Amino acid sequence: MKNDRIITTAMKLTQFDLITPRLTQQGRHTPPNKINREPIQSHISSYNPSISHYRREHAPKRLYLPSELTVNMMYKDYKEKHQDNPCSYKTYRKEVTDMNISFAKLGEEECSTCLGYQRQQHPNHDTIPKPTHSECPVCESWKTHLQKAKDARDRYKVDSDNASKIPDPYRVVRSIDLQKVIMLPRIPGHKSV
After folding, report:
1. pLDDT in the model for residue 193
2. H/E/C letters for each residue in the chain?
3. Predicted TM-score of the model (pTM)
4. What was the pLDDT predicted at 186?
5. CA 193, CA 187: separation in Å to the nearest integer?
6. CA distance 88 to 38
């Protein structure tokens, strides 16, 4: 029995002018069932997953979609829109998991003034939209509150535009989030602590 099979095989694969043998093509072909994941990722991203304002300290890279939406609904939509790139439900769900997306009803993203306005009973306001009532003190307070919020957002945008236009190396512009500390136990619907 010959013992030099490895050497003779290597010599057959090597050209005479090369020192090392060329690589075999074993296991180097693309699997026939390989799925292009780009359309799946772009479809999932089309639902605009967002970062939660109140959970970003504990889970900064987690993205959230509304709890009314399900992976099954998204997958059915994907199958209708991308018939040229089919995938299984399991693959689609794994891609949602890999993108670190959760489905949750996020905490109250409104301030206590807006929540108070929404909860107020408006017995005489059935025919006219709520913010147009000048005799209602809560409605007036809410209108003032909305105007202040709009003015603050406009000032923020102007400052942001000005900061990007002037290339001064000694100018520093910072935006600060004055988020309140959330105390536990958390009561749903109450933002003020």
Report:
1. 42
2. CCCCHHHHHHHHHCCCCCCCCCCCCCCCCCCCCCCCCHHHHHHHHCCCCECCCCCCCCCCCCEEECCCCCHHHHHHHHHHHCCCCCCCHHHHHHHHHHCCEEECCCCCCCCHHHHHHHHCCCCCCCCCCHHHCCCCHHHHHHHHHHHHHHHHHHHHHHHHHHHHHCCCCCCCCCCCCCCCCCCCCCCCCCCCC
3. 0.48
4. 52
5. 10
6. 15
